Amino acid sequence: MTKKTEKKKSKKTNEKLELSKIIEKLFKLLGIDTSFEIREDKKQEALMVDIQADDGAGLIIGNRGRNLNSIQTITGIMLWNITGDWKRVILDVGNWREKEETRLKELASKTAERVKETGESQPIYNLSPAQRRIIHLSLSEEGDVKTESVGEGDERYVVVALK
Fold it and tell me: pTM, whole model, 2 decimals?
């Protein structure tokens, strides 16, 4: 193993170790009993943290994932402050992110079908930027419909319309 490879492997191990310490401390301060597993996702260039929290899962996720996203942001910033390098951190509890993505894809599909049946544009409100992105990507392959984000700030929403 070359020195460069050793250094790179050591850095990744250090990131995981530091992230593990951060998560343990954070959830201890929150008073939530959790266990977790950290793995590297090369495709997303991120450290994935799968959290198991039987009684506290709902509290960690929060309304529409807001708590989970906030904890994820804080965790990423704390890791950056310790290591000096930015590494994307993605937290998940009970496969919530996968279930949410499936729900959003189904919403997009149903909305596209409604647009095709009625010929009228359909808005989808109350979505975060990440949720809007999932809607756009899931309908990007549809030949008959198009999507567009409309509005500013918290009032931004997606419109699904015929091409």
Answer: 0.79
